[in-house]
Design goal:
By secondary structure, the chain is an all-alpha fold. The protein contains 20 helices and six strands. The protein has a two-stranded antiparallel sheet with strand order 1-2. Strands 3-4 form a two-stranded antiparallel sheet. A two-stranded antiparallel sheet has the order 5-6. The protein starts with a helix and ends in an 8-residue tail after the last helix.
């Protein structure tokens, strides 16, 4: 039984949340609206087109590098060309795992469900296409991240867009590099504390509560904050040691569960792919039709793999290599794993599970307002959970474990992104680093225990504001990457680039 004092306290807490939301929404609303504003007469956010157009430009400019060097990228991840004497802190695989842990998260589970629930299975096709194109954006930014990183006497490194923007612009005699680097760093810190931290803690608490029953969020927050701090206090090497174990495990866990569901419904796989291809070009009666499917697919891919945002370049900059282009090759695998594999698995499971209500006679999905009607009215992560549970009753438990792991791994990776932006602004040093790590962990507790919708909206906008600055700069710096690519390609063909193991 809840006491009167407890009810009063809860009401006071709720009103405080509401007050914070209202004030924050009023102050930050215009910025959020600007970043996610649609083109006039459409529901297509300009920021998504900004990311997709850049991906197309880089794909064409580098002559489809993501396909030409795919095999070499695999060899680099395996360590075939890794010289242990090269500068850097982590291996190619560890850098990839760290960056993946920052992108593979709740968006792959809840976000895909939203995209398919609104745009239909056809959204999956456009999501895959955007993921494949995004590989070129990752290649571009991560090559520059390594090329212009700072290497220190103790063996540690700092890199990312703030470094290649300031250094690259200065090298080419272009103005504004310092200003853009500072702007990127500020947006990165805000995004790290919000979308890369509070949102993850909040959603992880919601999933745990669904399993064990309702309880105060601050308990989840303190536990997460303690574990996160224990990992991030050791720096990128500590983060990499955790992510190289947790990322393959959570990926295998999630994809494995999806494959089991597909195997159980193997007779529906052909039909599901038919729905994806037909829906991509006809809409299959979805609200918004073909355009609706395209918008949802592109939006989900952009929000999921962060290609062009610049965040991954910070993690990849820590790699052990003296050839910047090699980490560009490794990083292009990221959107493939995140979007083409994991997001597609989610979309297939939802399509095959029968959770989306389909009128066989009419050949159309039944709509519930602006989205497809579902069996129990589920949307987001609840829809994905119901789809997993349709095959095996206890699979939602596996999904809950995956959600917690995804949230945790995202937090530790974004702590590193925020840290490097922080030290760029306020200087390197143990005191500066510890200050940010403590602030980050305090925000873990806040995120798990408070309902701060506008704060999360603002942090999402900050993350995509990073992309505005980053891609603008990349257009001025692509020529440097092209020179690196031509040089490395010729040396690889001549045999000058040697394998260290076969």
């Amino acid at each position: 039984m809840v006491s009167g004092a407890g009810i009063a306290q809860a009401q006071e807490s709720m009103s405080l949340d509401q007050k914070v939301n209202e004030v924050f929404a009023t102050v930050t609303g215009p910025f959020v609206s600007l970043i996610f504003a649609p083109f006039p007469g459409t529901s297509f956010p300009w920021i998504v087109l900004w990311l997709v157009v850049a991906a197309v430009v880089f794909t064409v400019y580098f002559s489809f590098v993501q396909f030409r060097f795919f095999g070499h990228a695999i060899a680099l991840v395996k360590g075939d060309y890794s010289n242990p004497k090269d500068a850097g802190e982590v291996s190619h695989f560890q850098a990839l795992a760290t960056a993946l842990s920052g992108t593979v998260g709740l968006g792959n589970i809840a976000g895909v469900a939203v995209a398919v629930g609104i745009g239909g299975p056809g959204a999956t096709f456009w999501m895959i296409l955007a993921g494949l194109l995004g590989m070129a954006s990752k290649f571009t930014e991560c090559t520059l991240g390594v090329k212009y990183r700072n290497e220190y006497d103790d063996g540690s490194v700092s890199g990312g867009p703030m470094y290649y923007i300031s250094k690259g612009f200065a090298e080419r005699g272009l103005p504004g590099g310092k200003f853009l680097a500072i702007a990127f760093s500020i947006f990165c810190i805000l995004g790290a504390l919000g979308g890369g931290n509070m949102f993850q803690a909040n959603q992880a608490h919601a999933q745990i509560s669904n399993l064990v029953g309702d309880y105060p969020g601050w308990i989840t927050g303190i536990i997460f904050a303690a574990v996160v701090f224990a990992v991030i206090v050791g720096g990128i090497k500590s983060i990499a040691h955790v992510t190289e174990k947790i990322v393959p495990f959570m990926g295998i866990l999630y994809v494995g569960a999806a494959l089991i569901i597909l195997a159980v419904n193997y007779d529906q796989i052909g039909w599901a792919f038919g729905q994806i291809f037909a829906g991509a070009f006809t809409g299959l009666g979805i609200a918004g039709g073909f355009v609706g499917a395209l918008i949802q697919g592109f939006k989900r891919a952009a929000f999921s793999n962060e290609a062009g945002v610049g965040s991954a370049a910070i993690a990849h900059s820590a790699v052990r290599t003296n050839e910047p282009i090699t980490e560009g090759f490794v990083s292009l695998l990221e959107p493939l794993i995140d979007t083409v594999v994991i997001c597609t698995m989610t979309a297939l499971v939802i399509t095959i599970s029968g959770q989306l209500i389909f009128d066989v006679e009419a050949g159309k999905y039944i709509l519930d307002g602006s989205r497809i009607a579902t069996v129990d009215g589920n949307t987001g992560v609840a829809l994905t959970s119901a789809a997993f549970g349709s095959a095996i009753s206890w699979f939602p438990v596996v999904l809950a474990v995956a959600v917690v792991l995804f949230a945790f791994s995202t937090m530790i990776s974004w702590s590193y992104y925020g840290l490097k932006a922080w030290t760029y602004l306020f200087g390197e040093g143990k005191k500066s680093e510890l200050t940010f790590k403590i602030i980050f962990c305090v925000f873990v507790v806040i995120g798990a225990s408070a309902s701060l919708g506008p704060v999360i909206d603002f942090s999402d906008a900050a993350i995509f504001a990073m992309a505005v600055v980053n891609i603008f700069a990349l257009y001025f710096l692509v020529g440097i990457v092209r020179k690196e690519l031509i040089s490395y390609s010729s040396r690889l063909k001549s045999g000058e680039i040697k394998k260290y193991r076969s």
